[in-house]
Amino acid sequence: MEPTGELDHRFSADGATPTTWNEARDQLERAETYWLSTVRADGRPHVTPLLAVWLDDAPHFTTGTDEQKARNLAAGPRCALTTGASALHEGLDVVVEGTAERVADPAGLKRLAAAWEAKYGPEWHFDLGDGVFLNRGGGAALVFRVVPAKILAFRKGDYAQTRWRF
């Protein structure tokens, strides 16, 4: 069952209609780059660009075991994943607010590795390690799923802000 979008009239043009879930999900599936926002242990924000895949109704991303985002998520799993276009008058920006959960089961990692390679090409091939992806250099990458709590879509041009709660 697909979620129902709710238009926020405060931030939408007169006569605007909600963005459909299919449009928002399509943007999340097709986007090539995303921005992950996490919070450092001392409360300062941390934002970084990364690649992600949409699978099983959620976005997934990777991080090296010693990267700042991995340390931030270990201290607090709440995050936001954003994608969209930098154009002012066209496009659709989408924000997924939720909780990052590790994906470590071999079957899930295998499906995600295949999804990464299908989306980004053979240069993004991952082998599987013990609960991690292994990159070409042999380094381990943790894999996370963002469990959505809320998704926002900001449609430009005919300006509409739509919200889905999960």
From TrEMBL:
The organism's superkingdom is given as Bacteria
Instruction: Please provide the record's keywords in A-Z order.
Output: Oxidoreductase
A Pfam family: PNPOx_N
InterPro entries, per the entry: F420H2_bilvrd_red/Heme_oxyg, Pyridox_Oxase_N, Split_barrel_FMN-bd
Domain (Pyridoxamine 5'-phosphate oxidase N-terminal) ranges: 22-122
* Identification of the protein by name: Pyridoxamine 5'-phosphate oxidase family protein
Recorded source organism is Nonomuraea spiralis
- Taxonomic placement: Bacteria, Bacillati, Actinomycetota, Actinomycetes, Streptosporangiales
